[in-house]
C-alpha cells in the first residue's frame, strides 16, 4: 500500500517557516529534489518525505553556516 502524497503547499510552507527561507526558494528546492530522488528511486512510497527532509536539512545547514 502506497502512502498518500503530502500537500506540497503545506510541506513548502512548513519548511519555509522552520528555516526562515522564502517559500519560493523552498518550493523550487523541493521540486528539484523531488524530481532528483524520483529519477533514482525504485520504490516511491516515501519519496516526498525524503525530499522534504533533504531540503529542510540543506536549509538548516546553510542557515547555521551564516551565523
UniProtKB/TrEMBL annotation:
<dbReference type="Pfam" id="PF12085">
    <property type="entry name" value="DUF3562"/>
</dbReference>
<protein>
    <submittedName>
        <fullName>DUF3562 domain-containing protein</fullName>
    </submittedName>
</protein>
<dbReference type="InterPro" id="IPR021945">
    <property type="entry name" value="DUF3562"/>
</dbReference>
